[in-house]
Known about the structure:
This is diguanylate cyclase. By secondary structure, the protein is α+β, with helices and mostly antiparallel strands. Helices cover 46% and strands 21% of the residues. Helix 8 (197-204) packs across helix 9 (206-223). The longest helix is centred in the middle third of the chain and has 22 residues, at 135-156.
Amino acid sequence: xxxxxxxxxxxxxxxxxxxxxxxxxxxxxxxxxxxxxxxxxxxxxxxxxxxxxxxxxxxxxxxxxxxxxxxxxxxxxxxxxxxxxxxxxxxxxxxxxxxxxxxxxxxxxxxxxxxxxxxxxxxxxxxxxxxxxxxxxxxxxxxxxxxxxxxxxxxxxxxxxxxxxxxxxxxxxxxxxxxxxxxxxxxxxxxxxxxxxxxxxxxxxxxxxxxxxxxxxxxxxxxxxxxxxxxxxxxxxxxxxxxxxxxxxxxxxxxxxxxxxxxxxxxxxxxxxxxxxxxxxxxxxxxxxxxxxxxxxxxxxxxxxxxxxxxxxxxxxxx
Length: 319
């Protein structure tokens, strides 16, 4: 009776191994396959008879032998389980994803457990791999991370223009100012606003006014470098921080921007409307003690441009 019970128990265990929704692979110490369950058959397209006694590396050439053998041998030596997780390595073997998440994952994400198996003589002569399909978990986590990244990005940008919002832009300015003070690197600031914007808004309406702001912002983004910090400072007022740029380069940038805006055509019914901008430009210098001083100097230069008749660029006077 006890022997019969053991045989039945083994039969049940084999049924369980074949039915569970994880991959089960048992290998000898030469990495040759001895157990290959239905999960492995279904996802690899390789039957258990075909897989039997073949090397794991022959069946899956994508597995890096040196890395995998080191992982297995460490588990065998310590007599403990070892693991690989999808965050560190998306998968051990390349299986197509059949999760109902259309188009979000071509391959199955996997967690893998490496389990040393001891014989009745306490010798570890086999190793079991348990392969878990965690595609759903991985995709959900990556979607959440992407959503959080987008939310963070939205929190840093102005909703109308896509430029940096004032609060975040001032944080960037403060960091760059501290960097300048430490390394004595050059840096310049361009501050500008749209000429007679209130009159434009009152005449043509806020919807067209918003379109003008968007178009000026678009031109600003086109002309700014990836390393520059372009922001919307107020209603129709903009700022561009130019790191590692001396005053001459900042003046050239400001003039390119002024001319580009002047060429802008705003279609309104049967009219083509034009807008201009006035700009103030300054650079970091040793006499400044806070980043706010840089804003104040640029704002003063901008005011001088308005006094000159607008649609011009004024360089702040040297201290």
